[in-house]
């Protein structure tokens, strides 16, 4: 047989062209190159880039040899038809021997590497075709490699190939685009699309490349009067439904209405036939049923595909489907799925009845808080308020969501069920009412003594089986102690709550209480213990099979806070974004802490516009989620002032700081917010810094000394370090002899605690302007001296930024600080003043 060698260029030239807007997949190409397997099999639904990846892989071969690409189009073909196509590509005649032997003679014993690509292998190939290829793979062919793309795993002896190291397989999960590649594709196809559109497409397509392209193709430019063409439906007709048997297609269309499906569910839905076998056929044919667990039990139809298929059955048929699925879910104990199906079927009373079955810790798991809040919007109030259990569940959910006005209404209506005829039930209901009222009052912050009294009285009468309200009362008492100036009382309450959670085997509530413990440790500066407790809490959550987004989000946000304290900005940013995303998905108002952290991070980088943008978005989210105003307004204002302080815009701080201060002084002072117990102290620190900036150093010194003593009494050591560093600034401004010692002590303590973020803020002098006759050498930081020197040499802000590798905004910030510290308003005056002080030659 003649040996025809083709060079790399001619081999690659025979390949199909790559699609426009191609996103390279180097990781997957490397994966295919990593193992020189005899068979490389790509098995996934239509549109996951199987053919394109094979094309890209072959183009990456330094010496590809001979490439034979056969597009089989998923159609059945005989061994003889395959031989005819292969012989035509090789420009050879078909050997007059049995097909299996002929196939081996055509491909074997060649002096070059031969790549045979069977693109879109038939869904139902004849058995003799499978036998031919099985025989081909069973024979060692040193220079032959087979690459196959298919929508159904071929019936070859794949286990034998796997054991021999001759099989490399990629499935749907491996072939799906990751988020970064999704963004690359969006940049190529729709570079001006908004983040919201990109995120929605990602959620709908889950890495399905063709789905992204088809969805974007259907989007019309703004102002267009034409009707959009549904390319996705047309694609599914050709590439999916036309390849399925009628009963398979009808089954898939029905399953598109359900949140998750399984063989058992299908057997229940199609009792007259073999529903389980029907579902297994859909799975085998890669019909966009994506796995939801590692056991291969539960699946769901890919969201984009499900949406496109749902309109193909009537509303009445869909309702019947939802009802049957509802009965199956409730029988299997999957209450939340049953509730959703009952709502979809319009059975509101059934949905409300199922709500009463949810367990005590259900609210804090997965994304259940978001689910319940969404169900509240779909259920009439007359049903939500129909029983004490429903009212209690809704009240706790609203408290967790900081929707305090709505929670108060629920709690008041719980009183309508009092008194109960049975004395024991009456005591129990009253105790639950007091627990709810105590937590509500604590969250409002206006009557801390009353909140604590309600919680203590509830603890006296709550039966042991109501362990969740008992635990939450202890948590509330601990947080009240932290927020009202007696943090030493908190550990005892938290220890009792922790014991209850452990005795009940509730990992969720153990982590919830750990979050309270973490807050106390952060206030006290016990950062090593904080980190250990965060790691322990992550380990506890990981013991559960579910993804508990609410608690994971909170843990990530407190971990980011620790990164910020240590000055680890890149690590903080990464974790902040992750935690914020999870909090928003779970409708958790703790997302506020994510926005506060991002604002602080960008302010430290001198990116003030971005900082304020995060604060505005935080306020918007709180409004949209109906969060009680005073749960977030104080901390948002505080963080806004901290950003302004970094800019040196002290004139805008005073009215806001004084307004906040009024809440925490007087005859009936408010308690600090439970989730930000240091707010009034930090507000006092800002006021003192403001007075120092205004030249009122003696007033500032008096305020700071009192604040320092208070922080030490509370054992809020990190905040005490910050106050002492500011006090040292005031002392230098007043030429106090002990100013240097104060600063040195504070720096040593901050260094010992690992507070690198604080030390960087105060490197070589704080950002607080000083006035009066002070030591010129200590007046400006090293960076400020460098900026001043370049200003004196006539450099522009842009040029200074280039020289010092900092942004223009950062240069402007340093310039403002220099002017303020030197007591001038313009840069020319600053240069003259610096020369007079001997700061410049």
TrEMBL record:
Record CDD domains: LuxR_C_like
Residue ranges of every copy of the HTH luxR-type domain listed in the record: 773-838
Keyword Transcription: yes
InterPro entries: P-loop_NTPase, Sig_transdc_resp-reg_C-effctor, TPR-like_helical_dom_sf, TPR_MalT, Tscrpt_reg_LuxR_C, WH-like_DNA-bd_sf, WHD_MalT
Alphabetical keyword list: DNA-binding, Transcription, Transcription regulation
Gene3D superfamilies: P-loop containing nucleotide triphosphate hydrolases (3.40.50.300), Tetratricopeptide repeat domain (1.25.40.10), Winged helix-like DNA-binding domain superfamily/Winged helix DNA-binding domain (1.10.10.10)
The keyword Transcription is annotated on this UniProt entry: yes
Family annotation (PANTHER family): DNA-BINDING TRANSCRIPTIONAL ACTIVATOR DEVR_DOSR
Protein name: Helix-turn-helix transcriptional regulator
Organism: Metapseudomonas boanensis
UniProt lineage: Bacteria, Pseudomonadati, Pseudomonadota, Gammaproteobacteria, Pseudomonadales
